[in-house]
Inverse folding.
């Protein structure tokens, strides 16, 4: 199988990831529950993972890195923990349902208001719309760093500057970029950064989290066992415990720890360069094929390594099925949990076939995929 | 290290667990996102894990087995999803903070009322208190199957009968029993069963969930990516998707799948018999040591394999430290997230040293632990 569905999850992980998870499965007690060697091994690796994430993502404090099961949970915690009745929020058409549905729920159940910056048919927003949509009760901007559908990146530093100028909380979904593109919360003016461990961070599924700038207070989400302050009726208020009730996914985090070590050793810039080169190679090969429509903005390399396309008017899932069954190429078809952007692109009915590249993909794989598209289009 | 902290997490797992996680880390795509071989392998194993859990725990429908990151999350989903303003809830002094804190929050933030059945100094409740505490607005009973502190088990079938007679929702925390004691939702009259994967189910951390009886509707918890029905603004309403937003911990669930296979092959009754025999051997050896106080009810074998004790008036954490550092024995001291039961036992200040046995412990380990207690007491 040629795996080109890295925007869904990186199937191929660095070898050290499985090794680390296996080692943890034979040695970890429960982090923060007990002082014996097993519990302490878990605590040590988990804390080091917070440190590696803080360093990678520009979070000033390792204890403000909170672990969750995935970025959807992180976004729910951020959105529900910061916003409520009477608040107005700005977001964009590029968002994944993990941003959209928590925002829609905020509108429906708590009376918040949300405005979305519209995307054009290439999936670009007009940054001046932020000013135009600003209201006296605007409290936050919530947006993705890069579209999971077409790979277009938002200028996070620019939006961060806007947010800071107007005293808005800035929540960013880095599900498609953390580990594969330079992210620096401080420099970009991000207040809460939500990430997943199993995509570009190359760690196991079941890992993810939030990095929270000092001074940002989020309401508790799940509450319960904390391993400390047992006699408090309220879940402890200090980060990271505040937002991490119950036993953490220590085994998964051990894998993420190893993956972060791998990313540090290769370097985010090198990973990005490799993935973008593969994307450019594929884009160059398919864009001119008769009957192929490619979506998104390829004028810059500041993007995620994704090429979304359709072949003639063929249903995208049928094209993906043929790619999988005839050519052994794994892609993803359909709507990709990105409903608003499909409406903007005009692909609501057809969906799109998404090719997303990862660090372990090769030029040969890219060429085989382009050739398969060419044959399907013929 | 002699590991006797299995009530916190089973450090030793069946070998098949790490093997399954490793295999998954090299082959799983994202469950429900795509139709290529990688995504389908993940979906198949995840669905089989639902089936195995449904079969083990007496849940009528595999698609009513919902995965969460841990039992704390499961209990938050159940308690917040079913109960609200004006509701009265019955619970007990045996509960872990993963039950208590969601209930306290329900009291403080939503105006629900909670009454707790008091435990005596042995950690037993008086079942007649259920009738005595019943009110016209009582909506639910939420309780543990077995105390994580002393191992005492509640008579779940009896409470289930009471709940049914009065039309109450019955939510059970099986964190200490699933996999190590027979649990049958149907027979015991349980509406929502919450479990964790990394304790007696012997799977990886980061796994857990709820089994939900048909007809019980829980409000959504986190919302977001679902992989289906992208254009719905509301997170889909069907189980299990309703309560499972975002990417599941596929790699961890693959380990749980293997652990469940191991449990099926050994048999829950055999696991329980082995663990209780170890507990009885330890209890028999330490109960008569001068200066040792053992807590809990040992009149029945319907209990979790736990012995909590103190040595004279020694601080429990100092005893646990000595057990760890001098004897290489891992236990857990302190309050164990069980504040109300410590108050009932009179150990609020001292805490207790908890020895909790698992399937891979041996008689020699038990004897070494008892001998260590004897020496510390001298």
């Amino acid at each position: 199988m040629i795996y080109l569905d890295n925007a869904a999850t990186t199937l191929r992980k660095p070898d050290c990831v499985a090794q680390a998870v296996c080692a943890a499965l034979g040695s970890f007690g429960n982090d923060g529950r007990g002082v014996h060697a097993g519990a302490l091994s878990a605590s040590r690796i988990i804390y080091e993972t917070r440190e590696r994430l803080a360093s990678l993502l520009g979070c000033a404090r390792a204890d403000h890195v909170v672990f969750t099961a995935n970025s959807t949970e992180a976004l729910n915690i951020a959105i529900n923990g910061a916003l409520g009745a009477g608040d107005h929020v700005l977001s964009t058409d590029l968002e994944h349902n993990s941003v959209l549905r928590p925002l829609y729920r905020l509108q429906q159940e708590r009376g918040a208001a949300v405005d979305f910056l519209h995307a054009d048919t290439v999936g670009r927003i007009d940054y001046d719309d932020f000013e135009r949509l600003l209201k006296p009760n605007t409290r936050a901007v919530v947006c993705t760093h890069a579209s999971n559908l077409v790979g277009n990146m938002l200028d996070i530093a620019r939006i961060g500057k806007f947010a800071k100028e107007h005293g808005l909380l800035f929540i960013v979904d880095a599900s498609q970029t953390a580990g594969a593109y330079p992210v620096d919360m401080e420099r970009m003016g991000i207040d809460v950064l939500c990430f997943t461990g199993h995509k570009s961070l190359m760690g196991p599924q079941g890992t993810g989290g939030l990095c929270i700038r000092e001074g940002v207070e989020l309401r508790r989400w799940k509450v319960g066992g904390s391993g400390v302050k047992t006699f408090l009726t309220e879940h402890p208020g200090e980060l990271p415990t505040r937002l991490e009730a119950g036993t953490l996914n220590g085994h998964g985090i051990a894998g993420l720890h190893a993956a972060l070590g791998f990313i540090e050793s290769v370097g985010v810039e090198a990973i990005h360069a490799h993935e973008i080169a593969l994307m450019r190679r594929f884009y160059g090969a398919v864009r001119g094929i008769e009957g192929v429509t490619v979506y998104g903005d390829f004028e810059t390399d500041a993007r995620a390594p994704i090429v979304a396309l359709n072949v003639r008017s063929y249903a995208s899932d049928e094209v993906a099925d043929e790619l999988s069954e005839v050519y052994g190429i794994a892609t993803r078809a359909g709507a990709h949990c990105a409903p608003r952007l499909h409406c903007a692109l005009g692909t609501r009915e057809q969906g799109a076939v998404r090719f997303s590249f990862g660090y372990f993909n090769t030029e040969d794989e890219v060429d085989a995929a382009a050739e398969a598209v060419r044959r399907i289009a013929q």
Observations:
- Chain B has a mean pLDDT of 97.
- Chain B has twelve helices and twelve strands.
- Residues 15-266 of chain B form a domain with the Aspartate Aminotransferase; domain 2 fold (CATH 3.40.640.10).
